[in-house]
Amino acid sequence: MYYFISDKNFDSDILEPRIPLSRLLDEDDKTKRICVSKSIMGCLSAINPTEEEILFVHTCNSNNIIQPTDNQVKDNVFTGEEWILEPVEMKYLMTIKIKNVLSINIDYLNLIVKTCDFDIINIKVR
Fold first, then answer.
1. Shortest CA distance to 21 belongs to which of 36, 35, 8, 2?
2. For range 106-116, the mean pLDDT
3. What pLDDT is stored for residue 67 in this prediction?
4. Domain total for the chain?
5. How far apart are CA 51 and CA 101, in angstroms?
6. DSSP state string for the chain
7. Do residues 59 and 44 touch, judged by C-beta distance below 8 A?
8. Contact 35, 24 (CB under 8 A)
9. Residues of the domain holding 70
10. How far is CA 44 from the centre of its chain?
11. At 79, phi and psi to the nearest 5?
12. Alpha carbon separation from 101 to 4, 41, 44, 45, 104 (Å, rounded)
């Protein structure tokens, strides 16, 4: 199971792989993908949320997934980012509100990684 976080609720939607509009300047701009992580915190580190932001957490599954290289995504060691390369159905899990965002400067990578806490404000009961 993988997690996908967005500012939109994609419950039951089929997402198509694409080149992300918001990505690091030197991040891969050729591979169409759906960026996911095996942890919620990994997803949050990858999207750099702001305090008080409301986000939707989804789960999804796929067998067509790759681990990007450091050349494709230089922060994947911190985010655990993986790429799904096929259309995939999203299942809504919960809505969260971001709090206590902390920025960590990784000088040797010329990178800022964010971490945060969150409150669960809604959860899907299955």
1. 35
2. 76
3. 93
4. 1
5. 6
6. -EEEEESS--TT-EEPPB--SS--TTS-SS--BEEEBSSHHHHHHHH---TT-EEEEEEE--SSEE---TTT-TTHHHH--EEE-S-EE-EEEEEEEEEEEEEEEEGGGTEEEEEEEEEEEEE---
7. no
8. no
9. 2-123
10. 6
11. -95, -25
12. 19, 12, 10, 10, 10
Query: C-alpha distances in angstroms, 17 versus 11, 26, 60, 77, 83?
Result: 16, 19, 13, 22, 9
How many residues does the structure list for the chain? 126
CA distance 76 to 54: 23
Alpha-carbon distance of 13 to 88, in angstroms, equals: 8
- 107: tokens are 């000088």
- CA distance linking residue 108 with residue 81, whole number of Å: 20
Q: What is the pLDDT of residue 24?
A: 66
> Which amino acid makes up residue 95?
T
What is the token pair recorded at 115? Answer: 């971490």
pLDDT in tens, 46-96: 888 999 999 999 999 999 999 998 888 877 777 889 999 999 999 999 999
Beta bridge partners of 104: 113
